[in-house]
Structure formats: C-alpha cells, structure tokens
C-alpha cells in the first residue's frame, strides 16, 4: 500500500462515518411520521415506541445488508477478476428469489417465518450450482463468471415463468423481488446480524488471499497457493453474506456491483483497504436509499431495491463512459 492510498483511506473512512451518522439520524427521524430529536432519544432510552419497535430494527437491517452485499460483491470481483461480478449478476440473489417466489406463489398459506430460510437455501443452492458448473480441473475466473451469468439468466427466466403463471396473486412476490425493508422487525435483525458479523470478520481476515487472487494464474501457482481451495472459501463467504441479505430483504441490486468500484476509485485495489471501505459505503447507500423510499411518496413506500437501482445504474454507466471499468482486475 502506498502512502497516498492510506491517506485516502483514512479520509474516506472519516467522511463515510460522518455520512453514515447523518443517514442514521435521518432514517430514525423521517418517515410517514416525523419524530422530533428529543422524542427519538427518549424512545431509544426507554426501548419503546415507533423508533425502537419499527425504525431501529429496520435501520440495523439496512446497515447489515449494505455491508453484506458490498463485501460480497468486492470478494466476487476479486475471485473472478471480473469487474462485472456481483451477487445479483452471478446467480446468488436469483437463487434466493426463485426459492422465495416458489414458496409465495405455489404453497398457499405458507408461514412468513419460512421465507428467510427458503431464500437463504435458494441462494446457497445457486452458488453451489455455479461452482459445480465452473469446476473443470480447477476453477478458472472467466469460467466462474460466465457460469454465474448463465445460471442467473436461467433462474430469472424461471422466476418470470412463475410470475406469469400465478399473475393474479403475484403482488407479494413482485414486492419481495424488488427488495424491501417494510415491516422488518427485531426477529429479522436476529436472523441477519450473526451472518454479517462473522462473514465480515472472515472477509477482512482474507484480504491477503484476495490480493493473491488478483495475480495471474501462473504467478499464483508459482507461489504455491492452493488456488482452488482459496477460491472456494472466498465463494462460500460471499454466498453466506449475500444469501443472508437476500433472505431478509429480497433482491436489492447494484450494491455489490457498484460499491466495490467506488471503493477502488477512492482507496485503490488492495483488499485490506477496499473491503472496509466497501462495507462502509454500502451501509451508507442502503440507509439513505431506504430513507428516501419512505419519504419521497408518503404514505406509499418505494422498495429500497428500486432506489438503489435508480442510483446505481446511472453511476455504473458513468463509470463505463469514463473508462473506469477495465476488462480484468489487477493487483
């Protein structure tokens, strides 16, 4: 790491923390009912009221989802050495989406408590399928990325088929597919936060392996690294992070695709700096997107996945036009 990137990292973390603090206050105060700051502090202290029962768990989930998806995207881009890799591109979110759509549309009278487990199971199965298809005397990054795109396309086609077949009762499934934090509770927080904490710690501890994977295949093998085992471990961590986020909030796109690019623009490609930066920026984006979705058309809530797509898509096009996204990532 050069000194310039380290200075940029420190400033980025400082400014990012300030932005996250502002986003947290706005998220807790603003909504269908605006809460005065004094009442906000009182309800949090007393552990009762709108803030504590509804907005605080929703805020924590938004932070966790931003961290999960951003880190998962950064890791997948490192493993595949493909700047277009992300959980929603290589099939992980589509797997969770298909499992959930099947549950919602094909199983009448399902229990809401089953949703997260179906979504997480679907994401895990999709990740396993991509890995099995990509494995051929080892795992090549380009083959992994292509198999991921193929699996994602196939699963999205199946989702569309189910939506068309069960169109009259597809409203709930469509809302879930767009990604929403509506009616999330402390129960959902309990389901998500352990995956976020454990997955983030494992990811941060893996920065050396991710940096090695940015080297050419010949150099990696020359260093004696067990490259396939390392890639499998990185994929497992990424799937766990993204799958747990999808299980709680549905398909929230563009975070894992765009945020790692922004992090690399700010602090460079060293994963020791990129991973924490991505986590912080992802949390800021999801919290702000959820807040905007609640206040822009009250009392109607715009799903957070739509807001992140409206923000992420233009920025991604901007990066493409500026030539900031190369064909492969390099160390």
From TrEMBL:
Q: Which domain of life is it from?
A: Bacteria
Entry keyword annotation includes Transmembrane helix:
yes
Q: Record's GO cellular component, any one? A: plasma membrane
For this protein, what is any one GO molecular function term?
Answer: transmembrane transporter activity
Any single Pfam family the record assigns to this protein: FecCD
Going by the UniProt record, its keywords in alphabetical order are:
Cell membrane, Membrane, Transmembrane, Transmembrane helix, Transport
Keyword check for DNA repair: no
Q: Name one GO biological process term.
A: siderophore-iron import into cell
Cell compartments where the protein resides: Cell membrane
The primary location reported for this protein is membrane
* Bilayer disposition of the protein: Multi-pass membrane protein
Family listed = Belongs to the binding-protein-dependent transport system permease family. FecCD subfamily.
Q: Note the PANTHER family from the entry.
A: FERRIC ENTEROBACTIN TRANSPORT SYSTEM PERMEASE PROTEIN (PTHR30472), FERRIC ENTEROBACTIN TRANSPORT SYSTEM PERMEASE PROTEIN FEPG (PTHR30472:SF24)
- State what protein this is by name: Fe(3+)-citrate import system permease protein YfmE
- Source organism per UniProt: Paenibacillus baekrokdamisoli
Lineage of the organism: Bacteria, Bacillati, Bacillota, Bacilli, Bacillales
């Amino acid at each position: 790491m050069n000194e310039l990137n380290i200075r940029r990292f420190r400033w980025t973390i400082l400014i990012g923390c300030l932005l996250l603090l502002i986003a947290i206050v706005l998220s807790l105060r603003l909504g269908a009912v605006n809460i005065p700051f004094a009442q906000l502090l009182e309800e949090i202290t007393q552990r009762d009221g709108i803030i504590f029962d509804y907005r605080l768990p929703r805020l924590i989930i938004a932070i966790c989802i931003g961290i999960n998806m951003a880190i998962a995207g950064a890791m997948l881009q490192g493993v595949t050495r493909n700047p277009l890799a992300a959980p929603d591109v290589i099939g992980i979110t589509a797997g969770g989406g298909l499992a959930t759509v099947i549950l919602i549309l094909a199983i009448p009278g399902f229990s809401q408590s089953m949703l997260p487990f179906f979504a997480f199971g679907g994401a895990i199965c999709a990740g396993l399928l991509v890995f099995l298809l990509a494995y051929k005397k080892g795992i090549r990054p380009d083959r992994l990325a292509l198999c991921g795109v193929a699996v994602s396309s196939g699963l999205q086609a199946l989702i569309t088929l189910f939506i068309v077949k069960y169109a009259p009762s597809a409203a709930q499934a469509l809302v879930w597919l767009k990604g929403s934090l509506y009616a999330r509770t402390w129960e959902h927080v309990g389901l998500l936060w352990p995956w976020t904490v454990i997955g983030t710690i494992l990811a941060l501890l893996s920065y050396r392996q991710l940096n090695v994977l940015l080297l050419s295949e010949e150099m990696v093998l020359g260093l004696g690294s067990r490259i396939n085992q390392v890639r499998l471990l990185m994929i497992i961590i990424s799937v766990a992070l993204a799958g747990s986020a999808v299980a709680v909030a549905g398909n929230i796109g563009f975070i894992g695709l765009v945020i790692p690019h922004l992090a690399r623009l700010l602090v460079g490609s060293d994963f020791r700096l990129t991973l924490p930066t991505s986590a912080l920026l992802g949390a800021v984006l999801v919290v702000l997107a959820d807040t905007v979705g609640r206040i822009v058309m009250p009392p109607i809530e715009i799903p957070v996945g739509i807001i992140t797509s409206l923000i992420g898509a233009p920025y991604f096009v901007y990066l493409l036009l500026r030539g900031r996204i190369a064909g492969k990532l390099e160390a």
